[in-house]
Amino acid sequence: MHHHEVLIIGAGLAGLRAALEALRAGADVGVVSKLYPTRSHSGAAQGGINAALGADDSIERHILDTVKGSDYLGDQEAIEILCQEGPAAIAELEEMGVLFSRTPDGRIAQRSLGGAGFPRTCFAADYTGHLALHSLYQQLLCRGVRVYPEQHLLDLVVDDRGCQGVVVLDLANGRLDGFRAKAVVLATGGYGRVYAKTTNAHACTGDGVAIAYRAGAPLADMEFVQFHPTSLYGKNILISEAARGEGGYLRNRNGERFMARYAPEAMELAPRDVVSRAIAREILEGRGLGEGYVALDLTHLGADQIDARLPQVRQLALTYAGIDIAHHPLPVEPAAHYSMGGIRCNTWGETEIPGLLAAGECANVSVHGANRLGGNSLLDAWVFGKRAGGRAAEIARERPWGSAESIQGAVDRWESELRRICSGARGEPVAAVRKALNQLMTDQVGIFRDASGLESACQEIERLQETFQGIRLDPGPPRFNYALVEYLECGHLLEIARVIAASALYRCESRGAHCRTDWPERADEHWLVHTIARRSPAGPVLEKRPVSITRFLPAGRKY
Amino acid sequence: MTPLDLLVQRFDPTRDREPYWQCFRLTISPTSTVLDLLLEVRDLHDATLAFRRSCRSGICGSCAVAINGHPRLACMTRVPEVLDPSGSLSIGPLPGFPVLRDLVVDIDPFFESLRAFLPWLLRRPDYGGTMEQTTVEAAMDGALCILCGACQAGAGGSTAPNPAALAQGVRFALDPRDLLGPVRLWVLEQAGLLSPEAAQRWEASCPKQIPLTRLVARGRELLGDRPAVQGKSGSLGA
Q1: What's the ipTM?
Q2: Considering only Cβ atoms within 10 Å of each terminal Cβ, which end of chain A, N or C, has fewer?
Q3: Nearest residue of A to residue B148 by CA position?
Q4: CB of A52 closer than 8 Å to CB of A58
Q5: Residue A2 and residue A547: Cα distance in Å, rounded?
Q6: Which residues of A fall within a CB distance of 8 Å from B101?
Q7: Which candidate from A39, A99, A474 shows the least CB-CB separation from B136?
Q8: Across the interface, which of A102, A127, A238 has its CB nearest the CB of B131?
Q9: Is A272 noted as a catalytic residue in this protein?
Q10: Given its phi and psi angles, is residue A455 left (phi above 0), alpha (psi -120 to 50 degrees) or beta?
Q11: Residues B121-177: pLDDT tens digits?
Q12: What is the pTM of this model?
């Protein structure tokens, strides 16, 4: 068994930033990750990170754009913190070595992403996440932080005094291990892999969200899943919003820039929910190309601008579609990209469970509300990762250690649970259940939803959960037992999918990324509230909770 | 959709005396990547096949393997490009690294051997806060390394010189914010990493096409300007 005052689960941007802050506050810190830190999905972020730095820009405008982008569901108290901390976050990233692209006079350059009134996004070409993740990891390497790679979170150990530690599966040897901690920070990322069409890495299976939910932490706003407008058709590899930020056009089969019909002012730089719906609508109404895509046209930008600002996008298109974007338009379609919902927490990352915190995409603070703006997720991970790490170190000073026996008891229970699961192959293949779930979610809990589709999705997910319960695996070799890992991940995806579908059915309005064709209008009188989901044996129990509104009353949302 | 015989190296050191090859009959489409094939094997044929993967878009660096003997990223390799005329394809673990199971190798030595080169920015207190875009672009060449390990496999394996240290070393040496600056080049030189001939070989196995020869040339050029650090004796090993 290991002991760390502060234990961070997840080594992406939020987790590593939390680790650094807790270290700086003098805590003994351990970082557990299912991957090696530099393999985390934060590294795939392309477009950039927002901060109001420009002389004409202001924190106030960043706040307003984020509130409006969230379709007024974001908590304004949290959004104020996010935007106020933006300039300091950029300064820290620069200090750690991020190679931000520059203006002719050598200052950090900024470009426009969707839903922003100003070019507010700082970027390192289109490798912003890669540079941010690696630079932060390098700084932690320098400080000798203890990282435990390839450890899969199995459970949180929670008793009546709160979270006492965790149980993990060590992938390399198949052994279970306990970690005792005074404060645990979940920074396990999103769950795009619930869907068949997703830009997310294979690792994005929402393990921390599902495990926290099972342990009794409420989830919030799970119906709000962001569909990125431009994933590469077929493979759903992310094509950065920066492609439109740099001036790219979206065209339908008639060559028409169809965004004029949906967002006449912002055009291609409307927020992602608006653009994704527009693309889906064009395809549904027969104006798509091929078997269902639209064209992202960058040919007018010229090879020089593309190489300076979008080199990764050019390479990805070449590698995965055989298309040179400098000369030909690229087929794109929307795909699940970001989870606005997550583990409900306050602006210090604290959940309802004492000693358990959350930060980054797995958390719901909520700064993104019903729709996240491009460039705000790296900022969220940085700002709230830092706050959660600092708070965790404070908690570690005040809170006594839990008992080692309770951790060992949980490890023992999981050992017998895994013996039960691995008692000889039986039932459906795990991959078949996962694929059925993925298709169901993309078809019925996707960009457009209605009551009948959601009701049948809820029933079907329950049925898949029953099928899943009947699955047993061969014991298999203990080392790198990916069959077991994929089984565990599939269980998490099912758990999360059920909450997404139930929350989507519960919310009878359309807001941000949640579009109910049977309730097409936003309904502030009933639904300007967060959806809170708690686990019960019969399924998610849902309730409403007020949104923090400090300055900006809900208004129309035209772009 | 065309048929293909995929040969995959299997090895479980707790059961097998030595590695063996297993054949899977698959169908491929023109856009299939090698990772797509491995995923298909795990989903449809044998759930116990062990390999690392995550982003499937060439940025996380998890899926470095040997494809027909050459180190490559499975997710960045399109099958038609590597298919031999008989329609078969072999996938083994990253060469020169200890095999833990099937295609999973012990990658720790790769990460460990980087540490000696202090691969982090040590910030100059007098950095003024501005930087030329051309400087950013020069440093970016090495900063795009994703630490997949393919280069070290190409260089001979986990005990060979680590070309990723070259990429990172030159990247920081070119960064005006870094306190060590040119000292890093001297260290690289002492470690035998500033060799134009070797860089050319290593570059060929980099899936991200990091221009290692250009980085060596830049490094040597900068070293040449600083006779004060050149010619000092000392050994950091090869």
Answers
A1: 0.96
A2: N
A3: A39
A4: yes
A5: 39
A6: 477, 479-480
A7: A99
A8: A102
A9: yes
A10: alpha
A11: 999 999 999 999 999 999 999 999 999 999 999 999 999 999 999 999 999 999 999
A12: 0.97
